[in-house]
Amino acid sequence: MGIDTIQILVAMVVYMSVVILIGALYAKRANKNSEEYFLGGRSLGPWVTAMSAEASDMSGWLLMGLPGVAYWCGLADAAWTAIGLAIGTYLNWLIVSKRLRRYSVRANNAITLPEFFSNRFREKSKTIMFLAAAFILVFFTVYASSCFVTCGKLFSTLFGLDYKLMMLVGALFVLLYTLLGGFLAESVSDFMQAIVMIIALTVIVIVSTVKAGGIGAVLENANSIPGFLEFFGLATPTTQDVAGVATQVVENGKPVFGAASEYGVLTICSMMAWGLGYFGMPQVLLRFMAIRKESELKRSRRIAMVWVVISLAVAVFIGIVGRQLFPVEHLTKASAENIFITLATTSLPAILAGFVMAGILAATISSSDSYLLIAASAFAKNIYQGVAKRNATDKQVMWVTRITLLALALIGIVIALDENSVIFSIVSFAWAGFGATFGPLMLFSLFWKRINKAGAIAGMVSGAGMVFLWKLVISKLGGVFGIYELLPAFLFSCLCIVVVSLLTKAPSKEIEEDFEAVRIGNMEEA
């Protein structure tokens, strides 16, 4: 191991030690009771709420997945995805955050998303709670596996070690940290990690652009590739099969591209549909529920939007700069997601590169601990205590949570064993799952008084089912059916909620009174 590698390792170890220290500092308070462990006692300030929400949401996908897309096929896919995410972020903070914070308190002080939906409809059978918790378990396990893939790629690329071993080490670190500190520690460290992430992105894009000869040289190179720098066209790498992997062809030391692909309105809508996912993202919605005061959500929204816009724009441009500096370094779609690492390790002194690499680790930790914690709480609080053993003590719930965390981590590790996994693809499926399962239900629960329990169940089941059906079957037909599965699944879920609610019994007077109390309260607050 060379001196540069040692310096990078030292910087990352320092960072990881700080994260562990945060977990230790909050461990006593977090383990006081389940409300503190799962929601931090509704004590988050506006800065922590905003930054932790975005850091837990973006994950290693922001630093590896999105730049990888831009590096591989140019601006269009990455840019329209980023635009959709920025719009979705703004609308979620604007129209959902305040009403959800108020409604979660009204709904018997709900501290998890399944509990909120269950209490919102005053159900006794806990069917909604069980289904919501089950879907969270499925999709967050997939999500967590994408974070483990990020860890494996990061450490194996940096240190030349076995991917599976490095993925396992990263997964165990995340598991240890999540077991230690709970939601509050996770949120505070996510705040720190959001700062690290945006600094890492900004430093790399500035240094790399200078190294590439300036913005003019970067844009000139991008324009030389058909469709690479277009909003309404897409670059098409020419590939050949190498050991079962589609690998870009290189001729005379340059990557080969075919003619630009068309990029129509339907494709744009498909990519912007990523923004719809925000309305159903548990890791973001929980921050709305956990802030200490409704009045602070406006400030949080502004903070979050500044962070999101800068981070997304810089991440996309990093992929474009990478094509200029390292045109033949990454010849597969999976390898393209390492462009951020390549730029960092070649453009910065080793010790600084180590701290920038900590940005990737920061993003991964901030997301995976959120995913694992929310999934474990869904099982322990909503299935075990909410359905299976309603008289379970707080101590029993905490123990079941820890056992569940271990089980989910093991499943995520198994899914992440394939080193050719593409982070962007894994995240896109889980994102669609949450967006279509909970997004329509959240919007109708907050803004439509006529929705009832039957409609809520129909919306969840139809949304989740359509994500699987569209991804695994319908999208294979190609053409107009090749759109991102979130868009048709979201619309289908909305349709099912409306139709089933109107065809079945109206909600009770008590449920309507809850709705009106929250609605009037929001109007007065505004």
Sequence stretches where pLDDT stays below 50 over 5 or more residues: none
The main sheet orders its strands as: 1-6
Distance between the termini: 59 Å
Helices, by number, come to 19
> Structural class from helices and strands?
mainly alpha
Mean pLDDT: 87
Shape: globular
Q: What does the main sheet amount to?
A: 2 strands, antiparallel
* Number of domain units: 1
Would you report the number of β strands?
6
Any overview of this molecule?
This protein has a single domain (3-40, 50-525), classed as Sodium/glucose cotransporter. With 526 residues, it is mostly helical. The protein has helices at 3-30, 34-39, 46-73, 75-106, 113-120, 127-159, 163-211, 215-223, 265-272, 282-290, 297-325, 333-336, 339-347, 350-388, 394-415, 423-447, 453-472, 486-503, 509-525, and strands at 233-234, 239-242, 245-248, 250-251, 254-255, 261-262. The radius of gyration is 23 Å and the shape is globular.
Keywords:
mainly alpha; Sodium/glucose cotransporter; 526 residues
Summarize the SSE layout with pairings.
Blueprint: H1 3-30, H2 34-39, H3 46-73, H4 75-106, H5 113-120, H6 127-159, H7 163-211, H8 215-223, E1 233-234, E2 239-242, E3 245-248, E4 250-251, E5 254-255, E6 261-262, H9 265-272, H10 282-290, H11 297-325, H12 333-336, H13 339-347, H14 350-388, H15 394-415, H16 423-447, H17 453-472, H18 486-503, H19 509-525
Antiparallel strand pairs: 1-6, 2-3, 4-5
